[in-house]
Each structure stands twice: as structure tokens, then as C-alpha cells.
Amino acid sequence: MEEILKRVWDNLIARASGPMNFRLIIQPAVASFLAIRAGLKDAREGRPTFLWTAVTNRAHRPELFRQGRRDVGKVFALAVVLDAIYQLIVQRGVYVLELLIVAISLAVVPYVILRGPVSRIARKFTRPRERGGERHRAAYLTGIATEAIVDHQSQGEMRIAAQETTMPKEPPAEIQTLIDTAIGAFNDKNFTLFNSTFGGDVVIVDGFAPFRWLGPNAQGRWWGDAERWAKDLGVLNEHVSPQGIVHWQVVGTRAYAVVSAVLTITLRKREPITRPGILTYTLLKVGEEWKVEGHTWGRLR
Fold first, then answer.
1. pLDDT confidence of 60, banded at 50, 70, 90?
2. CATH T-level topology, domain 168-299
3. What single-letter DSSP state applies at residue 127?
4. CB 298 within 8 A of CB 277
5. pLDDT tens across 191-205, in order?
């Protein structure tokens, strides 16, 4: 085994100075270009980042693999052909293990490494596309919120003065944790945990009938209706990938948060459907604990 590994290593190193070594630069460059192009598209369309989602999200994984194969399949095939030619010229034979190592290193690795980071960086500067050319706010860049203060004067006139209030970029940790828990429980189909995040007189708005659920157990009725809706349409799985809290505000025991998210719906015998959207939460502090009091989903296209 040691001899085989040494031979493989020596042969791989020899490619740097051997014939056709130009491919060691050109093919990773092409794969990198494809990764950058795909990453920019992910950012524009509000898709989740590539590698992390492929590893952690089974619903997204088949579609991401198909996209990757479509992007780098030709580069990978060319890398295989060129390395086979190199081996026939230099080594007088074809070693499959070396062939796969070289092809994966030149075509797949640059694509996988670059696509996710490019998407994350581009998301800071690119607003996701919406139907009709409208755009939604992808990040709360300024950290400044404008409060409208309404002053009713004695003669019935109304005056609105805008006051700039400096806010931290991140919401309080307990609010972030509560929202993460609610979304995670939905993704894991854990109703007990999901239910525990709600409190008070709950309001839920969503895109299927009856569209609005009100009252102390609104989340339970919504959950049941959502399961029936999924069963009727042949939905195998729904997964929400949060892209970050883009706006939030806390006033006393009340809070408001807007989350940019991507909903992936996996259907039986059909391609997954990906929908960018906005999750809006209203929250109530009961004692020392925050609870979700309102929850709406709005799809952007």
C-alpha cells in the first residue's frame, strides 16, 4: 500500500512539470468562473448558500447536485480526457485513482469551495429579484431605523416628525434564538417544540386557505391545515432557509422582526420548488421570556 501511495503522489507531483501542464491553470480557472457566476445568481435569487446547504439540507441536496453537475460536468469530463491522454503519453497506461483525483481537484473542488463564499459576499451588495422588477431589502445595512411620531394637535391636525434612532445591527440574542427555534422546529416537523415558541393571542397569516388563523391555539390549527394542504398537493417536505433578520425593533415588552428566507418545497416525482420570501414576526415578552405572538409568510415570486 505504501508503494502505491508513493507512486500516486510522485505521479501527481510530476504533472506540474510534465506535458499539458497548462490545464492545471486553465481548468481550475474555468471551474472558478462557473462557481462565481452561480454564486452571483444564488445571491440575486435569494437561494441558500451552496456547500453548507448541500451538506445539511436533504431537501435541497438533489437540486444542488444537479446544478453542480450541470455547471461543471463538461469541465470534469474534459479533465478526465486530458489526464487520460497525459497518462498514456507519460506513464504508458491509465491509473483510474489518479484520474479521479486530478479531475476532481481541477473541476469540482474550486467550484464547491468558491460558490458559497461568492454568494455570501454578493448577498451584502445584491438585492434579490422579485416579480415585476421590484426589489426587497436584502440586508439592513445602515443600522438606522426611522420612527414616525404622530402628534395629534388640539385642532385635529396631525404632525409626523421623523426621528432617527440608532440600533445595533443584531437583535437581542433571546429574540434571535426564539426565531431560530421556531424555524428549526418547523423544518424538523417538531410540533411540540414549535408550539412552545408561541404565546398570547396568536395571529398567523399564510398563503393557503383559510389564510388567517386567530386565537390562543392558532399555531396548532395552522399546523394541522398545513399538513392537510401538503398531503393534498403531494408535498414530501418543506424547508425554510433563513437568510438573516433584515429589520427588527423592540419597544418595551413588544418586538417586531423581519426575516429574509427561502422556502423549498419537495414534491413527489417533481423538481423541488424554491420560493424566496419574507417571514414577519411579532413577539411578546411574558415575564423574562419572549414568545411569538404573530407570524406571517409572504412569498416574493
1. low
2. Nuclear Transport Factor 2; Chain: A, (3.10.450)
3. P
4. yes
5. 999 999 998 889 999
